User: Fold [LysW]-aminoadipate kinase from Deinococcus humi.
Amino acid sequence: MIVVKVGGSAGIDYDAVCADLAARWKAGERLILVHGGSGETNRVAEALGHPPRFVTSPSGYTSRFTDRETLEIFEMVYCGKINKGIVERLQRLGVNAVGLSGLDGRIFEGRHKDSVRAVENGKTRVLRGDHTGTVERVNTDLIELLLGAGYLPVLTPPASSYEGVAINVDGDRAAAALAVALKAEALLLLSNVPGLLRTYPDESSLIRQIPANDVETYLEFAQDRMKKKVLGAAEAVAGGVQRVIFGDARAGQPITAALSGAGTVVS
Ligand SMILES: Nc1ncnc2c1ncn2[C@@H]1O[C@H](COP(=O)(O)OP(=O)(O)OP(=O)(O)O)[C@@H](O)[C@H]1O
Assistant:
């Protein structure tokens, strides 16, 4: 089983990802796709007059402050436009894909964090009314049911809280939890960069290999949202996934290239 997570930053070529995925699926490989949608969510939020608000925690992690209105915009884009766009591409390529959010069948479940600590102008404040959380449980029965019946699952945040409330969760860490729960042999985190760069945005500074027992050390090279990817990779390898690859989804055959050793390989 290979879990592929494709991001939602500008420049990602969903046609290339879907074509590669479809070819491998038709050749008999077991795959699941998880996707993001941050770039488009920012654009739609601006257009709807509710611009995105990103907060940085005291430990340096950046996240989207998700009030109820933001959550609804997030769902429109992630579960609507992006998810259905990917499912349509796969259907046109002859793959019977099923698009679901983590809320559906509680595929991704976790604790709702209503408040977040944010550093603003050098001061730490507590912001309430946040709809975020972290995936702690994965409904593998539903995934296996779909795979067993020949459907390719296309999954996206949000997740469900234990109380059944929609929560915004990080897609990379959700994909990591999924890979661990399914005992996947590889997790691919594909985005609009060649991999983890030692000096971002210099693409010639690509880090090619990260030892599985030392992933956290590499957090120092990741800025803002890349930190969650490194954290997700650390969680996946700690949970038994043999290989995590940060790969490029901007062109070519992103999945095949990553599995052939391009990008940053954590193993
Ligand atoms: N050291 C680094 N190496 C590579 N990218 C980095 C680094 N530090 C920060 N980044 C940023 O991280 C971004 C990738 O993370 P991001 O979460 O935005 O992508 P995504 O997975 O495509 O999005 P989504 O949240 O929609 O799933 C890159 O576009 C880059 O701007």
In short: The helical segments are 14-26, 38-47, 68-92, 140-148, 171-181, 226-238, 254-259.
